[in-house]
Amino acid sequence: MDTLSAALDLVASGDAKLVSIVLLSLTVSLSAVIVAALFALPLGALLAVGRFPGRSILTVIINGFMGLPAVVVGLMVYLLLSRAGPLGPFGLLFTPTAMVFAQAILVAPLLAALTRQTVDDAWREYQEQLASLGAGAAQATATLLWDTRFSLFTVLLAGFGRAIAEVGAVMIVGGNIDGVTRVMTTTIALETSKGDLPLALALGLILVTLVLSLNALAFATRAWAQRKFG
Prior knowledge:
Number of domains: 1
CATH class: Mainly Alpha
CATH topology: MetI-like fold
Shape: globular
């Protein structure tokens, strides 16, 4: 109870260290989702609408990568960004940019797979109508992405929840440097091992609250869209 009380005091007082860690976590994860969405959403929609050689194989790969271990992604990005790696000269290792890169790779398969399923459901419903209007694959893809925008918003929220709760990849490529790359999940792991339970618990409470809030927002958005647009 003393630990819980101390954790709540940290949250209520707006502790500067706590706030900086939370803000960095939000910035990194939000940036990663935006970067991943730029190519994952069009790719998922193309897999739903397009018919091309290798489509089934690509779909299987993307679905399989949804369960890709975070530490494997972290290792891959580490090798790319290390001094001996192809991107080593840019000096991105142990920076927030490296963390964004790793989380974007981790989240992209999830966004692509969920987008493919969402757009595929809409494509089955509107395929004949779009074909009668002479819409090509690119036009149909763009139309369905817009038509399913509210469902895709929940997909993005799911991706954000996956990113912000991740620890393995950002620990490897970020180095968990205090004041530079230390996010909520890595701080919880470190402070727990050090025995600083109030800070770890305070960050844990904030992280759980964020995840629950995201799920509530996704549910509310979908319910509102169904009432408004049927």
